[in-house]
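User: Show me sequence and structure for the first protein, then do the same for the second.

Assistant: Starting with the first protein.
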Amino acid sequence: MDVKLSQIFKDTDALNPSPELERAVLRRIELLAENKIKRARVWMYAGFAGASVSFVWAIVAFGGSILQSEFWSIISLVFSDAKIVLANWNDFWYSVLETFPTVSLIAMLIPTAVALWLMSIWSSLSRRENYQLRFHH
């Protein structure tokens, strides 16, 4: 076993893959990354479409109940009878909370939150796409 360390490292070129194989593997990795971005973009666009449709549906279904609720008439008391409201502020706020159109508002806010979440995904995809993921020499 008189093999010197320098001789061992001289023969490592035979162990390295060929440049063609290296390029093929790196190109395949690059294609997989591009396909992943494309799939995410398709799901993002479908999510935007779904959020938009559900937001419009929520406005049509719940918009009238928000506009016709007693919440607005109770809130208008602040401007017309401010002294009475201040004298009975505790009961006034209970009445405001009782008449607040919570379900209708939540039905409109959920698609809005989904759209904002998808915008953040779109932003990260744009940043990732602008960063050139290239392995070529």
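Switching to the second protein now.
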Amino acid sequence: VYLPDVLLIASYYKDWAKIGGGLSSMNLLAYGEFPDNPNDYSASNLLLPRGAIINGRFDEIHPVDLTAPDEIQEFVTHSWYTYGNGLSLILISAP
């Protein structure tokens, strides 16, 4: 039922497909979702895989270690806010 509704509604908003873009349409990060078995988030059990897509290469999903601080970073220079201590990289340690 859902897919026919989406296709019908999308046909009225074709011009909306041109909205957005930028780097977000080329570089994506997915944490993996929809496990076949509840609460089992192992890679083989996920409908949508985890990983990174770089430069729009959807045929090549790069593995990402979600616990490695050198792989997942947030930079203040690429955000909407400022950080008073002068650092551009925010490091968050796990509890």
